[in-house]
Design a protein that fits this description.
The complex is a heterotrimer of chains A (539), B (124) and C (651). Chain B is mainly α and 124 residues long. Chain B contains 5 helices and no strands. With 651 residues, chain C is mostly helical. Helix content of chain C is 68%, strand content 3%. Chain C has a 3-stranded mixed β-sheet with strand order 1-2-3. Chain C is globular. The chains are: A mainly alpha (539), B mainly alpha (124), C mainly alpha (651). Chain B: One of its GO terms (molecular function) is NADH dehydrogenase (ubiquinone) activity.
């Protein structure tokens, strides 16, 4: 809206507005997901309560699967572009979206995460037949109203449309081809997440506080992002990534405006990916949010934000690489080290996974230091691979967290996890596999992904980053192994942890993520091929 | 670079106006303060709330449930904001515009329908 | 150092080796790894733990059978390899492409050549014997199924390490043996010392792994490949400095795994593990992986004199260092551990001599595998009879009561000190000779080490098997069951005859295609050196006899001892150095970061006290995580970022 009017003022003569020409087929995955979200709102409004939860699950699953199929079709039909860069696909919807190789791969990845997330949301066998979400969010925690709502077995099935909105926003974020679209996408993905964070059934105060923190800080960082966009607009006179790129490479005046704008945009994005020093929300929010939401958020937000970040900085600011690269280097280093060292001292499983997520953001930033295109390991392919491997392991790990419980719900103190190997060997082995993948042990997806980001960075001349990265992963490995030992060899405290028996929903999530983690470690070839063929970003 | 400097120079007049404005206001208040007598009574020190006696401390929590009103406001405000410019160019675009705006309004309506079904619209 | 620089290296013959594709027997070599790996998987994640199912009753038999089956495959492969033409003795079998990115690909392959074949025999052969022994040693342990699972896991990982055709795959095995070692050292983790030792081994090894990982990254960056063979071909065209950097990084890795100075400190503590583990992992096989790495990377070391010199220095320092520690320890296993460090120092020294020494390094590695495994198992047998007491001051006069253990241990003893005719005599003799031929000082260190070895091993022998009875009250020494003594007898036999490998230079010729070979002429006839060595050994042994057999042995270690003994008992202050250099700063760093994190954390994962009122604590903890602090951090970060970018522009 403001873009149009500002352009009208700046442009020479106001041109007559033409009907936008949108290739609906190409953006169909996005439309299907947002359609499923809207349909979900209607289901919430009209379907009787008894059938609502099940209907919502059906709508979400069908939507995600349909969108996945559509993504595959779109991906198969992308044309190869041989220009300045080798890539596939290109801008569509009046240039506001770029449906290129990386975008389509990211869509598929996000939809996969979304499906796993929905399966976790749908789990109702763990908490006496109720979902992990509070019965009525508007009742004060511990009040009579709350107990009444629980007794009536009311459930917030709104989480499904909310998740679909967030998913749609993530997909939009990863493929947006102008800064304004990116901002809208950022908000569309963030707002539902803020809300969902506050909906935990147990420990509601913790959950609400997490939501509040996430919202305030998220809004704060969005403001930075928006301010950055404004500055870059002031510099380039356009929101389009392609136009900004042209302006950057022709160095039209006012470099300060560009630099400040880049820095502020970077702040907004680094907040979303949880890089130091913009990470502080992560442990609190991961801990407080309902665990299924944490799982979905950890995998999805990171993926969408990283792809968007690569897109902005490689496409729009590619010409100013030597201005932003040092900052990214510095942040990658402190993020890796901080994440690895701080996780050593954690005693809460969810906080530990949050710090591990911070460290992984650092490793992903290392990947950003690689080459934009070429036939070796490029930054884009390395980061895409990393995101799939990390996301799968993260969702799996949080899925395991939902199963280890005591009378008060999930028990996340690490000490209470001692002896899990005896209580439920299968679960403990699964969690071990995820931890080993986080640690980057060979034969897990984590090893190949670390290797590929390091290889990309080394190819790009960023060997100091690689050295720090190797040191940081060595540090982190120590902690992960200690947890593994705790699971299997430490004597259980008291009765030891109890493992709730979940429905096939959660089991299938754990099974799928374990399979993905191992397949990516043993036979990474197909996915590596795929991310390589996706090629570079096309503007 | 000099173009850029010239461009920035055009902001000088804005700065000047702001400066003059601040000076004027400060001056008037300052003169006022210099000449007025100061006699305080408890009634005078009370916070002025449209003639109603204030209750409680200055910091009060508002109920989170007011989000519903914000919600409804957004539904209608967003409607209006997009409808006005659309109306200006509607004729020149034709049916495509009508359909797309209908889709847009449909989405907004979904939000309204949700609010209605959740009982937000019953004013009791 | 004078003669060091005058070496003219033989043209790297090993670079000419062209691996042939595996067929016939060789296409089954993957079974070597697969059998113990599958067995480990069954034992570790089979039916629920501790429920006395069939796996708990027969698991140890399955594990042992897997090790033996793997050994049989190894023997078949070795025999087949003997039948091949010399030019076709490096066979490679591609299993699948692990990863392929652009021009870079890593293949999961089995690379089976003369060097791998020897290692396979050593690992599976000694491994099988130790499995058999463990059946007796661990008979009453409730978790023996898990123990055998770990042992199988170790065998599989170690075989991956030596059969790897690619440094990345080697790294996989490297990490795998590290993990298995960690798990086995801490096997009795209810003992706090065992848990601490496991942790320490793990951390110190990480430092070494860092070197290996960076070395592999450097190869990838320089040559675009990590295939061992191709790296060997490429490195000849690379600059001197690249070869040196690679050599030093790999040496760092080797130091960690092989407990060489300065990363030696973990090995002594690793003796907290069950004794069969000490024998297999911390004597015969895993700790020699560093030597394997250096020999396998011969192509790199051939090109860098600096790297080779570094290897020699590390070897010499460690062989004296370990011997010194061996003299001061009263714990039989720690004395043996010091001796292990020292013997691996010999191997490193030999490997650092280049093509002149590679074959001798491997030769000594194999004989050491026999006699050290033998002695560790013997020590285990003694402990078995002495209620797990490890203090040699509480032994004495055991030769009558444990005749088999005594005789087999004596064979190992004669082998390690280099008694003429025994295996150690040949292998150590060769190393000392070539050391003298290359560099006088290295030779002198090796010679001195041989004397000290004779001294401390004689001391162990006397304190344990001779002299007065100094047993505790309730100890009734007895011979171990057959299942434990049979492996001892086999290993003792091998310790005696292992030297046969060098008859008519068999092992040198066998390894030449892999490592190259060259011979340095000594200034004196070889038999003179041999005589000198034997004389030095005799002096060392006699000194020990005079000091320990002719006098009474105090029941507790005397405190009024020389500064040398005190230093030796303190592991030459290795831990103190580590603590000051690494541990303290690390702790401060972690603590301060946790402070920044603002959440009260006790640092111990299993702290029980914290369990009480966890929920309440969680809430209170959240109160301290103020949003305003976080927002200030974000703002500060943004400010720094903006200013930094602008400053770059202004500069």
């Amino acid at each position: 809206m403001s873009a149009v009017s500002v352009q009208a003022i700046v442009g020479a003569a106001p041109s007559p507005i033409e009907a936008p020409d949108v290739d609906y087929a190409t953006i169909s995955p996005l439309l299907i997901i947002l359609g499923a979200a809207v349909l979900g709102v209607l289901v919430e409004a009209f379907v009787p309560r008894a059938y609502r939860f099940v209907t919502q699950i059906a709508v979400a699953v069908v939507g995600v699967v349909a969108a996945f199929v559509a993504t595959v079709v779109v991906g198969a039909g992308l044309d190869t572009v041989d220009g300045e860069v080798t890539g596939r696909g290109g801008p569509t919807a009046m240039g506001s979206l770029s449906v290129d190789g990386p975008a389509v791969v990211t869509w598929a990845m996000l939809l996969f995460f979304g499906l796993l997330g929905v399966l976790l949301f749908a789990e109702r066998r763990l908490d006496g037949g109720l979902s992990a979400f509070t019965s009525q969010a508007s009742t004060p925690p511990g009040s009579a109203d709350e107990r009444h709502a629980t007794r009536l077995r009311i459930e917030h099935s709104e989480v499904f449309p909310l998740a679909m909105f967030a998913l749609g926003g993530m997909m939009f974020f990863a493929s947006a081809n102008d800064l304004l679209g990116m901002f809208v996408a950022l908000e569309v993905l963030s707002l539902p997440l803020y809300l969902m964070c506050g909906l935990a059934r147990r420990r509601r105060l913790l959950s609400q506080e997490a939501a509040m923190k996430y919202f305030l800080l998220g809004a704060f960082s969005s403001a930075f992002f928006l301010y950055g966009i404004a500055m870059v607009y002031g510099y380039a006179g356009s929101f389009g990534l392609a136009e900004i790129s042209t302006a950057v490479s022709s160095q039209i005046g006012g470099q300060n405006l560009l630099l400040a704008g880049m820095a502020l945009i970077l702040v907004g994005l680094l907040f979303k990916v949880a890089a130091v020093p913009f990470h502080a929300w992560t442990p609190d929010v991961y801990q407080g949010a309902p665990t299924p939401v944490t799982a979905f958020m950890a995998a999805g937000t990171k993926a969408a934000a990283f792809v968007a970040m690569l897109r902005i900085f490689f496409v729009a600011f590619g010409g100013a690489r030597w201005d932003w690269a040092p900052a990214v280097w510095a942040i990658a280093i402190i993020t890796m080290l901080f994440g690895a060292i701080a996780s050593i001292a954690q005693t809460d499983v969810k906080r530990m996974l949050a710090y591990s997520s911070i460290a992984h953001a650092g490793f992903l930033l290392v990947g950003m230091a690689g080459l934009t295109s070429g036939d070796g390991v490029t930054s884009v392919s390395a980061v895409l691979f990393y995101l799939v491997a990390y996301g799968a392991a993260a969702i799996g790990a949080f899925a395991v967290v939902t199963l280890v419980r005591d009378a008060g719900g999930e028990t996340t103190h690490l000490g209470r996890w001692a002896g899990l190997g005896k209580e439920s060997p299968v679960l403990a082995v699964a969690f071990t596999i995820f931890l080993l993948s986080f640690a980057g042990i060979p034969l897990t997806g984590g090893f190949i992904s670390k290797w590929s980001v390091f290889a990309a960075a080394w190819d790009g001349g960023a060997w100091p980053l690689v050295v720090v990265g190797v040191v940081a992963s060595a540090l982190a490995l120590f902690f992960y192994i200690r947890v593994v030992v705790l699971l299997f060899f430490a004597p259980p405290q008291g009765d030891g942890p109890t493992v709730a028996v979940p429905s096939p929903l959660t089991w299938s999530v754990v099974a799928i993520t374990v399979a993905v983690t191992i397949v990516l470690g043993v036979l990474p070839g197909p996915l590596l091929d795929l991310v390589q063929q996706a090629g570079a970003f096309v503007r | 670079m000099s173009d850029y400097a010239d461009y920035l120079a055009t902001y000088a007049s804005v700065a000047a106006i702001i400066g003059v404005g601040v000076l004027l206001a400060a001056g008037m208040l300052g003169v006022n303060r210099l000449f007025r007598p100061t006699l305080t009574t408890p009634a005078k020190l009370l916070t002025y709330e449209s003639g109603v006696d204030p209750v409680g401390a200055g910091w009060a929590q508002s109920n989170v449930r007011y989000y519903v009103y914000a919600f409804l406001y957004v539904v209608f405000a967003v409607d209006a904001v997009f409808l006005f410019p659309w109306a200006v160019v509607f004729a020149s675009i034709g049916w495509a515009a009508a359909i797309e705006m209908a889709v847009f309004l449909g989405f907004i309506a979904v939000g309204l329908v949700y609010a209605w079904r959740k009982g937000v619209l019953s004013w009791t | 150092m004078t003669s060091m620089s005058s070496i003219v290296l033989a043209a790297s013959e090993h670079a000419d080796v062209v691996p042939v594709a595996a067929d016939g027997v060789f296409s089954w070599m993957w079974l070597l790894v697969a059998i113990p790996a599958v067995s480990a998987a069954i034992l570790l994640i089979g039916d629920g733990a501790g429920d006395h199912g069939p796996l708990d009753r027969f698991g140890h038999l399955l594990g042992t059978a897997a090790a033996i089956a793997s050994f049989v495959v190894g023997v078949v492969g070795f025999v087949a390899l003997l039948g091949q033409d010399v030019a076709e003795r490096a066979v490679t079998q591609d299993l699948w492409t692990w990863m392929q990115v652009g021009g870079f690909d890593v293949t999961m392959s089995v690379y089976y050549d003369q060097l791998s074949a020897l290692f396979v025999l050593l690992i599976t052969g000694v491994g099988s014997l130790i499995h058999v022994y463990s059946i007796g040693y661990m008979a009453h342990d409730p978790r023996k199924r898990r123990f055998f699972g770990f042992l199988n896991l170790f065998i599989a990982a170690m075989l991956v390490l030596v059969l790897a055709g690619d440094y990345l795959v080697l790294f996989l095995g490297w990490e795998g043996v590290g993990l298995a070692s960690y798990l086995l050292i801490g096997f009795w983790q209810e003992k706090r010392s065992a848990a601490v030792a496991a942790k320490k081994a793990f951390i110190v090894n990480r430092v070494g792994d860092l070197g290996l990982a960076l070395g592999i990254m450097l190869m990838f960056a320089q040559f675009g490949t990590t295939n061992i063979h191709e790296v060997g071909l490429n490195v000849t065209n690379a600059s001197q400095s690249v070869a040196t950097a690679l050599g030093l990084l790999l040496l760092l890795g080797a130091c960690g795994k092989s407990a060489q100075v300065p990363l030696q400190s973990w090995l002594l503590d690793a003796m907290e593990g069950p004794t069969p583990v000490s024998a297999l992992i911390h004597a015969a096989t895993m700790v020699t992986a560093g030597v394997y790495l250096v020999v396998r990377s011969a192509a790199i070391y051939d090109l860098s004199e600096v790297a080779r010199t570094a290897v020699v220095i590390v070897g010499c320092v460690t062989l004296l260092f370990g011997a010194w520690i061996g003299c001061a320890k009263d714990d039989i296993k720690k004395a043996l551990a010091g001796s292990t460090m020292s013997q691996i120092g010999y191997m490193m020294l030999a490997a650092g001599l280049g093509p002149a020494g590679y074959a001798f390094a491997i030769f000594h590695l194999i004989t050491h595998g026999f006699f050290k495994a033998n002695m560790f198992l013997g020590a285990g047998s003694v402990m078995h009879g002495m209620n797990d007491d490890v203090d040699m001051r509480h032994y004495g006069a055991l030769r009558k009561l444990m005749p088999l253990t005594f005789i087999t241990f004596a064979m190992g003893y004669l082998a390690i000190i280099g008694f003429p005719g025994f295996s150690g005599f040949f292998s150590k003799d060769r190393i000392i000779e070539s050391a003298f031929a290359t560099n006088f000082w290295a030779g002198l260190a090796a010679l001195l080490g041989a004397g000290v070895t004779a001294f401390y091993m004689t001391r162990v022998m006397i304190l344990t098997f001779f002299g007065e009875r100094r047993w505790r009250e309730d100890v009734h020494p007895h011979e171990s069951p057959k299942i434990m003594t049979v492996p001892l007898i086999v290993l003792a036999a091998l310790s005696v005859v292992g030297g046969a490998l060098t008859f008519s230079d068999w092992i040198e010729d066998w390894l030449t295609p892999v490592t190259g070979s060259e011979h340095h002429e000594l200034g004196v006839p070889a038999w003179v050196i041999t005589l000198i060595i034997v004389a030095v050994v005799a002096v060392g042994a006699s000194l020990a006899y005079v000091l320990f057999a002719r006098r009474d042995v105090p029941d507790t270690a005397p405190q009024q001892v020389s500064v040398f003994t005190r230093a030796g008992r303190a592991d030459l202050y290795g831990d103190a150095v580590n603590e000051a250099v690494f541990m303290r700063p690390g702790q401060y760093l972690t603590r301060s970061l946790v402070y920044v994190d603002g959440t009260g954390i006790d640092g111990a994962v299993t702290g029980t006290a914290e369990l009480v009122g966890d929920g309440a604590r969680g809430l209170r903890r959240l109160q301290t995580g103020f949003v305003r602090t976080y927002a200030a951090e974000i703002f500060g970060g943004a400010l720094v970022l903006v200013l930094a970018l602008l400053a770059v522009n202004l500069a």
